UniProtKB/TrEMBL annotation:
Residue stretches making up the Glycosyltransferase subfamily 4-like N-terminal domain: 64-170
InterPro entries: Glyco_trans_1, Glyco_trans_4-like_N
Organism phylogeny: Bacteria, Pseudomonadati, Thermodesulfobacteriota, Candidatus Desulfofervidia, Candidatus Desulfofervidales
Protein known as: Group 1 glycosyl transferase
Glycosyl transferase family domain boundaries: 183-347
Record's keyword terms, sorted: Transferase
GO molecular function: glycosyltransferase activity
Length: 374
């Protein structure tokens, strides 16, 4: 049985990489391969990611020593590393990439975002050289969509770049069809899930609300997520809400995990996520699993997931006017809303389930083991 060392954090906190790592560890991959896990989680707040402080330095050193020990004790043939898209993050990744290279391990890197190429091109010459050297001999570089293959071109041979879209556990949403008719008949609920920051398009949704409620008063906007540790931005939002008298149509919630999140999705009518930079966001897949029409932007692999005018609308970044127009379109057309939601559910079941994700990842592992035999 092939031995694979999986490097990556598990929740909490919840973010794309930690969710994917947990999914891998709780899958049937355990029956196909000998899975060894090095948990790199920092259990503190998400705001600590990418920062230098004593705890992060200590954790990096601790994880490096554990990695060396696992390589010596467990002798994995494959090392799987979800890589970062920032200078500090990638330097931390090099604590695994460099020794794996020295130990002659077969390395698989998995990119969970869509920003790596810009990060690479904007790096110093020294950093570029480090990235090129550490990626040159990886056996597979995983991206989240066909449109993201370009990210590793010139850094990794084309034949070693593979696509593995994210997936969500469909069993969590099995009651979707039973609950679809229990949505409130009195209000249309527009849901945003994610960090409440400008780069997620959160402010753009807020600015779209006045135009929507001038046409329809029976709309509720629900924002579930965490504000950054930036009180100026937070105050700016609440000042805008107060000035435009939006208190009665806006509801804020903390991060909603597990069943609470599923229930929130199932009882919503429209999902909005106009982010400025993404890879293949889990929240969109979760909204599709819940049978919702999606309003989102053309970033990362989203266009491959949300087909414009089929299971949602693709809009421009930083465009509250378009957000308002698409929400109004879905409010005044209940049949369109229902049809798009059904298409979302169908596309999810066909392409983006947890089983599909694990199957695709298993195939990548098998390919690399086959390379070793040959």
């Amino acid at each position: 049985m092939g031995r694979i060392l999986i490097i990556g954090p598990t929740p909490p906190p919840y973010h794309g990489v930690s969710v994917a790592t947990e999914m891998i560890l709780n899958s049937n991959l355990q029956r196909k391969f000998k899975i060894i896990h090095l948990d790199t989680a920092d259990r503190r707040d998400l705001s600590n990611i990418g920062k230098i402080d004593f705890t992060n330095i200590y954790l990096a050193f601790e994880h490096f020593l554990k990695f060396i020990w696992l390589c010596i004790r467990e002798k994995p043939e494959i090392v799987y590393i979800p890589i970062s898209q920032t200078t500090l993050g990638y330097l931390r990744d090099c604590l695994f990439l460099v020794p794996a290279k020295i130990f002659h391990k077969k390395v698989i890197v998995h990119l969970h975002g869509g920003y790596f190429r810009k990060f690479y091109e904007g790096s110093s010459k020294l950093m570029k050289n480090l990235i090129e050297w550490t990626l040159k001999e990886v056996k597979r570089a995983i991206v989240l969509g066909e449109s993201l293959r370009y990210i590793f071109q010139g850094l990794v041979p084309d034949e070693r770049i593979v696509v593995v879209p994210n997936g969500v556990d469909e069993k969590l949403f099995e009651k979707t069809n039973l609950t679809i008719d229990t949505k409130s008949k009195n209000h249309i609920k527009v849901l945003f899930l994610g960090n409440l920051i400008k780069s997620k398009g959160f402010f753009d949704v807020i600015k779209a609300i006045p135009k929507v409620i001038r046409r329809y008063s029976n709309v509720k906007f629900i924002f579930a997520g965490k504000f950054p540790n930036n009180y100026r931005e937070q105050n700016e939002v609440f000042r805008y809400i107060e000035q435009n008298k939006l208190d009665s149509v806006v509801k804020f919630m903390e991060v909603v995990p597990g069943e609470k999140k599923i229930k929130l999705l199932l009882f919503s009518d429209v999902f909005i996520f106009p982010s400025y930079n993404e890879g293949h966001p889990f929240v969109i897949l979760e909204a599709m699993a819940a049978g919702l029409p999606i309003i989102t932007t053309d970033v990362g692999a989203i266009r491959e997931t949300v087909i414009d005018k089929e299971n949602g609308f693709i809009i421009e970044k930083n465009n509250p006017k378009q957000i308002a127009e698409k929400i109004i379109t879905l409010i005044k057309n209940p049949e369109l809303r229902k049809k798009m939601g059904e298409k979302s559910r169908q596309r999810f079941l066909k392409y983006y389930t947890k089983d599909k994700f694990i199957e695709n990842l298993s195939n990548v592992f098998r390919e690399v083991f086959e390379m070793a035999k040959n």
